[in-house]
Amino acid sequence: MMKWSWWILLWILPACTSSELVDPAGKSEHATQRTNAQLDAVAVGSTCDSATSVAATFAPAAGHPGTTALPIDDPRIVAWANGVLDIDYGAKVDEKWKVPERALGAAQGTSTDVVSLGEGGAITLGFAQPIVDINGPDLCVFENSFSDTFLEFAFVEVASDATVFVRFGAYSRVTSPVDTFGTIDPTLVDGLAGKYRQGFCTPFDLAWLYGRPEVLSGALDLNSIRYVRIHDIVGDGTELDCASAPIYDPYPTTGGAGFDLDGIAVLEAAP
Fold it and tell me: Distance (Å, rounded) from C-alpha 167 to C-alpha 157?
């Protein structure tokens, strides 16, 4: 759900009846929505990747000691997604939030310059140059939460050639449903996009995927990631983390329902 006080909801934004979907090869298509049967059918791994699952707590909110949040002006950001390969909106999202090109280029850190995926929706973005595994996090996902605790989550999946997507392991220790305007302690979740407030991104390290069968077989090349898919989590507990625990976030939501994607940054190696 879009995260504003009720009076902000009175703002009237221009209706969007169509949008330009652009792929990294420079092709475009004028459409309100495009789904790719090949991408939609791709299998996704769901393995827990690291020892963080046994940690007492996970990283805290942006600005707190030990956070992993990166600011929108972090000097390590060197590139952004530049093409929409696939968009499949979920339930309860209004037309005015179906503007996929808002996910392209630099994140804006605002509540409005986003594409809302709807409950269970997904978007696949491409990059002009492949993302490679560097020293430290390799990509970072921006959402538009107005606070440190009103959080909407999504899985993050990567692919080298759009035939095999692999999902980062995600953990949730939120043990009970969260209502529409409920809050979540960010130290209870890890590996989920949307962990941090607007203007800060959730980082992902491709090294976490070493040891996955897709990597070992060569189906996923961690030095040539060309596609990133963001898959909204329906927050009623029906979706599970990599340890088969239910994932909860504010539910139900309407209007700008689901994950609100501001941008995906590519990072250079840490010094």
Answer: 4
Residue 8, pLDDT score: 36
How far apart, in whole angstroms, are the C-alpha atoms of residue 138 and residue 140?
A: 7
Residues 6+ apart with CB under 8 A from 172: 153, 188, 189, 192, 241, 245, 246, 247, 248
Which residues, listed in sequence order, are joined to residue 243 by a DSSP beta bridge?
none
Domain count, the chain: 1
Predicted confidence (pLDDT) at residue 63 exceeds the cutoff of 60:
yes
Radius of gyration of the chain (CA): 17
pTM: 0.87
CA-based end-to-end distance of the chain: 38
Residue 129 structural domain: 33-267
E-state strands within the chain: 19-22, 28-31, 44-45, 70-71, 77-80, 83-88, 115-116, 122-131, 139-142, 154-159, 165-167, 171-172, 189-190, 200-204, 225-232, 236-240, 246-248, 260-261, 263-267
CATH number at residue 144: 2.60.120.260
**Residue 210 placed within a domain:** yes
- The Cα–Cα gap between 106 and 116 comes to 17
Using pLDDT thresholds of 50, 70 and 90, give the confidence band for residue 269: confident
Indicate if the pLDDT at residue 92 is higher than 50. Answer: yes
Q: What is the DSSP letter of 91?
A: B
Residue 12 inside a domain? The answer is: no
pLDDT at 15 over 60: no
Q: Which helix (H) or strand (E) holds 215?
A: helix 213-216
Q: In this structure, is residue 24 part of a structural domain?
A: no
Give the three-class secondary structure for 238: strand
3-state helix, strand, coil split of the chain in percent (to 5) is 10, 30, 60
Q: Is residue 19 part of a domain?
A: no
Round to whole Å and give the CA distance between 97 and 93: 7
